[in-house]
Amino acid sequence: MDAKDLLRIIEDGENAELECKAAKGGLPKDVWETYSAFANTNGGIILLGVEQKGQEFFPVDVDAKKLVKDFWDGINNPQRISKNILVDRNVEIIEVDGKEIVKIYVPRASREDKPIYIGHNPFTGTYRRNYEGDYKCTKEEVQRMIADQSPIPQDSKVLPNYGLNDLNMESVRSYRNRFSSLKPDHPWNGLELKDFLYKIGALGRLRETNEEGLTLAGLLMFGEERSITEYLPQYFLEYREKSSDVPGERWTDRIISSDGTWSGNLYDFYFKVIRRLTDDLNIPFQMEGLFRKDDTRVHAALREALVNTLAHADYYGQRGIVIEKEKMLFRFSNPGVLRIPLQQALKGGISDPRNPTIFKMFMLIGLGERAGSGIENIHLAWKEQHWTAPELIEEFQPDRTILTLRTTSLLPQESVDFLKAVLGKHYKFLTNDEVLILVTAHQENYVTNTRLQSLTDKKSDEISKLLSGLVEKGYLEPNGQGRGTKYTLTEMFHQKSIGNSRYNRISSGPNVNNSGPNAANSGPNENEQTKDHEKVLLDISELARKKKRLNPSEMDEIILNLCAIKPLTLKELSQLLNRQMDPLRKKYISRLLKEGKLEPLYPEQINHPKQAYMTRSLFTNQH
């Protein structure tokens, strides 16, 4: 085995991050930070005795046996680390180019074991992994992990100071009517209101004191928004709809829980939103006997996605629930990460809802499938339509789970035409799998190994070879490490897209959906526009490049003027301003974002590999 084959040995897990440590002086101290970070996120692989330079990996001389012994001694020492979640097979010595290296596979810890932390204090020793590497968790993140350890569901908590006066009775009556219509002979239909609410889990009783109160599920499902936010100040529900695919255009329909025109509870939110989600579905009707069947598997999938979002949300978390509908996609986003590994959630069959009582309430009125079947049913519905496979991701800082359902073909013609225009005669040398990868990167801004596993029948190592081949050809650029690497289209594709509103919010150029067939003829105009932009950007930033020290207010003004021309990445700003990226981000970009003067291009994915920044006035002027 040689160094080029090093990554091919990594076959544990489907979305493992990779951390290489030279370990020339013995077991590195920061190995425990990485162990904690991998265990508290999505798992990963640590390679000891490997030096990384860019995307190249080189084995170095180490005492592998001693590294293994020191690692096991440390991980089994409760003074060093809170818990060992590894077994013998997770640590092995392998040989590369005649040198021994240590491979450590760290699985994702179960919610019962999280947080995995260094030392005695979880609030100072807990780490997680994000796009930039290991980071120390905030107090709030640790508290959410500790809360998820409990076997007692979040939403079964009895709130003794909350009662029927906190409920919206119209919501309750509507629910009972739906229940009795669906189950006319059910014995609960004859119960008094309190008894009915107790049966469905909306009302509870503290056994120690016999005191009654609403459960958290009852308050969320049927409560008045004012009562809900008194207990959960961060509670917020939002639906956003945009009928146009022009970036920056105003939402054409919006619902928020705090506007005072409706109850603001989950039950009413569901029915307000589901009608809008399914209103204009362009799905051919089906026949059942002599009758038309308007309800399709896609309708059911959208109901399932909405119920799952409401049942899996962490209502103590930040930024609330956001449901989005655009011309070619639906997106369901909720606070809180998954309570089971991402790969397990995608496979279906196992579920661990954070709010099982809320899930039960929806099931009692015929909404929501059996636990664990939701994602599976959604995948099946999208596969029947030959649409791009659903994408389920987790984000951290703050914790969020995001399900994106695109109603685009696996190979949209506009993307195929775009690739042909850029690659010319080289396009015909691409395999079908390579075309799919590049099209997905074009449609979704990036691809990952895991994402491609959901789109193809290929295994992780086969996809790694395909991705590596496209990187060598200069078509893809890797961002990150290991199986969590995000691959984006290279600059050659970006240059072709200058002037195209898919990539540039302020461009006046043609829309990609209409420009595919003519793309090959539009190159010269786009190149001229690119040169014009580059000259303006260089002129604006000239002072910063010439002077090593600038007044912060002067630098602020230059950055805002640059980002008013077009969205710019941190790397682009660094080059224009002749400043290092890390200080630039910490001293200027982060502050300007907090002050609302800059706007991220991808606000829902802060760690997006193509994250760029634009001046707030640019963004608001387009609304």
TrEMBL record:
Gene3D superfamilies: 3.30.565.60, Schlafen, AAA domain, Winged helix-like DNA-binding domain superfamily/Winged helix DNA-binding domain
Region described as Disordered: spans on this chain: 505-532
Schlafen AlbA-2 domain location: 14-129
Cleavable signal peptide: none
Skewed-composition ranges (Low complexity): 507-525
One Pfam family here: SLFN_AlbA_2
Domain of life the protein comes from: Bacteria
Protein name: RNA-binding domain-containing protein
Source species of the chain: Geobacillus jurassicus
